[in-house]
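step=encode ok
step=design start
structure_in=
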């Protein structure tokens, strides 16, 4: 009888240890779930000489706020889609960036906003172009993706859809800022009597400015979102890369998620966002190798300037750019927030 009891106790002990070990492995796996987020607020001629200490602090504070808005969702087990929208909306609401509230002016003194979003888990995407009265273009882009059979809506039609979706609408003057107005006046002086932005090439400094976010959530799903006011003094309904899936925005769970900023015409011609992820997917390149190759070896020799933010399915983040600066921030897991502006800053 005693031997039977001892064997029973031994069996229970072994079973208990096995259960504890399996629970420990499961717990460890749960703890090791990767998640990450990166954001940008535009690339361009951004130097330490061009920003005061107060301005630099303001930009970095807003970038930190935006990254935190998205990260808090990911850390709580939320979706990458929710995270990128939350981060972008913080930047859209700030007059510091060329998106939403701080959007640049068209030649005619209005604001025309573009945005796009893509779900890496499903391949679904939504985009809007040339909207004038929608408070959050990225929210509308997501609504197009989730609540319509279309991918891209533009102009008055997009605004009518926004009204149907009961999204927040504002007067176009809501996007006015004195700084952007002065930029328009300077741009018009550069254009001179030609009066036609389609035929006269402005300096690159009038072509930069976009916000975006990419994220990986704890379920392994990627997402990317981009929003912009476009190009200063643009005319004829010009649309850049930001609302174009594959050019300014791309996400695919099998490769990576990308949001771009820069001289949009080049990003469209070279389908930058999708090209980076294709290199990761088909060539087996890392996000660093793919991003550097496209930004520095493909775009730059052709005159294309700007940058991208990238995250892959393992939480690797890379943010290459070929300009003097790019407003950017990232956070991997529960690590530190990395915020940077200039080319020589590590992140």
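sequence_out=
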């Amino acid at each position: 009888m005693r031997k039977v009891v001892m064997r029973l106790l031994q069996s229970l002990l072994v079973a208990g240890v096995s259960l504890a070990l399996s629970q420990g492995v499961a717990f460890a796996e749960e703890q090791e779930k990767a998640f990450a987020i990166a954001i940008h607020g535009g690339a361009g001629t951004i130097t330490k000489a061009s920003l005061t200490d107060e301005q630099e602090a303001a930009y970095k504070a807003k970038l930190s706020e935006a990254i935190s808005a998205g990260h808090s969702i990911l850390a709580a087990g939320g979706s990458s889609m929710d995270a990128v929208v939350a981060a972008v909306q913080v930047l859209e609401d700030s007059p510091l960036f060329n998106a939403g509230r701080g959007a640049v002016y068209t030649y005619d003194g209005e604001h025309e906003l573009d945005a796009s979003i893509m779900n890496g888990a499903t391949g679904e995407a939504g985009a809007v172009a040339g909207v004038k009265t929608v408070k959050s273009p990225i929210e509308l882009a997501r609504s197009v993706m989730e609540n319509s059979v279309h991918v891209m809506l533009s102009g008055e039609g997009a605004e009518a859809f926004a009204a149907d979706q009961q999204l927040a609408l504002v007067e176009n003057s809501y996007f006015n800022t004195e700084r952007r107005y002065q930029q328009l006046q300077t741009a018009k002086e550069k254009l001179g009597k030609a009066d036609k932005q389609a035929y006269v090439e402005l300096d690159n400094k009038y072509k930069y400015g976009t916000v975006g976010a990419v994220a990986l959530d704890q379920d392994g799903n990627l997402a990317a979102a981009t929003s912009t006011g476009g190009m200063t003094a643009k005319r004829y309904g010009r649309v850049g890369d930001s609302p174009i899936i594959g050019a300014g925005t791309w996400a695919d769970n099998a490769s990576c998620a990308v949001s771009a900023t820069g001289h949009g015409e080049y990003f469209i011609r070279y389908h930058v966002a999708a090209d980076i992820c294709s290199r990761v997917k088909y060539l087996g390149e890392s996000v660093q190798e793919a991003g550097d190759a496209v930004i520095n070896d493909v775009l730059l020799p052709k005159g294309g300037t700007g940058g991208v933010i990238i995250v892959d399915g393992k939480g690797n983040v890379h943010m290459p750019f070929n300009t003097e600066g790019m407003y950017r921030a990232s956070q991997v897991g529960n690590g530190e927030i990395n915020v940077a502006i200039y080319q020589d800053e590590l992140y």
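step=design ok
step=annotate ok -> Residues 338 and 347 are 6 Å apart (CA to CA).
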